[in-house]
Amino acid sequence: MNRRHFLASLAAAGTQLPAAAPKNLKITxxxxxxxxxxxxxxxxxxxxxxxxxxxxxYGWGDATCTGSELGVAKFLEEHLxxxxxxxxxxxxxxxxxxxxxxxxxxxGSVHMSAISGVDMALWDIKxxxxxxxxxxxxxxxxxxxxxxxxxxxxxxxxxxxxxxxRLMARGYKVIKVQVSAPGxxxxxxxxxxxxxxxATAQAHAEGVAPTEIWEPGPYVRTLPKLFEHLxxxxxxxxxLLHDVHERVTPSQAIVLAKxxxxxxxxxxxxxxxxxxxxxxxxxxxxxxxxxxxxEIFTGQWDGLNLITEHLIDYVRHDLAHVGGVTTGKKVxxxxxxxxxxxAWHGPGNISPITHMANAHVSLSVPNFGIQEYATGWGNPxxxxxxxxxxxxxxxxxxxxxxGLGIDVNEAAAKxxxxxxxLRPAIRRRxxxxxxx
Length: 436
Ligand SMILES: [Mg+2]
What we know:
Elements: H1 3-12, E1 27-35, E2 45-52, E3 58-62, H2 69-80, H3 92-101, H4 109-130, H5 134-137, E4 146-154, H6 157-169, E5 174-179, H7 194-206, E6 211-213, H8 216-233, E7 239-243, H9 250-259, E8 268-269, H10 277-286, E9 291-293, H11 304-308, E10 314-315, H12 324-335, E11 341-342, H13 352-364, E12 371-372, H14 379-384, E13 390-392, E14 395-397, H15 410-414, E15 425-427
Parallel strand pairs: 4-5, 4-12, 5-7, 6-15, 7-8, 8-9, 9-10, 10-11
Antiparallel strand pairs: 1-2, 2-3, 4-14, 13-14
Helix pairs in contact: 2-4, 3-4, 8-9, 9-10, 12-13
This protein binds magnesium ion.
């Protein structure tokens, strides 16, 4: 849809926009909407709507930060919104910097998720004013569609193999594989045992955090055997990757990166806490397994050494936590001269608005690697959100609607209120707290 068609569609809906960009445009209202379409465990979304002095001209952004949803909503309403009212929504970088310095004690997941939601909404507005998709404003498409991946998890090698085959049949070219370790009732991105599932449901019913037990030793010994099994059974014509979720010690991370080398992973994700820079330097000397990091970063300054020392191969910043479209474009540009590629975080616990923002940035950067994409969007999600990147044969794409190309049905969203679902506390068998 070009600008002329967009204006015509607005006119048909009773909304008129001037032929040229509106003069003296002002932000008149910032509204925060917390919704959980489908009332799922990971589905509390914090949505930001910015309205302007131009009737009918507004933008939507995603400020979802799982685990701090209501903190972000309150922070937006009380501490950022007053700094935006009356300002020009076209001055995105100006507003980004204004909101960053406004609270004085800056950065962190709550502050940066709030800025991310605002930033996406401002790019949405700018695109609508221009009558162009956001990727056009970022320099235009560098590719026709985005290579994507999703997960196959199982409690044993056969279950993972079956999941991989199902996804291959749907056209996926790259698949993340996760398996349970012997003796453990849960793990990252794997099905829980029946007993663990019941205990988790009980904790959720009581409104408290469930506990899961984790031991890294059995996991480190099991994982290479999963890849050995998959390469023997599904062959070499599929790219595989894996997410460690930082659940190992520094020395185990070295062992794992070396042990997985023969299986030619697409990348190994979140191998270690990003603070363990010294270990990343050792791993790079000892293993050629490609590494991906970034989903817990909360700004363009996080992980800078990982980039400038080329200790990783893919950046996985979450555009809903690092500062939106603006920061995504900056991070990609920082990575370009190092040959580091993008793989923006794209799970189901960030809303379709971020998935659309991910796609717009991914389409426009030269150093795109892959785009994570959540599957299984249910009917309540589709009732609330007008668009989700479309999947076909292992790739995703967005249309050519102006802005981010997504709208929110507010009446539908209000049917699905916030639901408290605390994330699990991960502990070793001796009770030691451990990274999720
Ligand atoms: Mg991850």
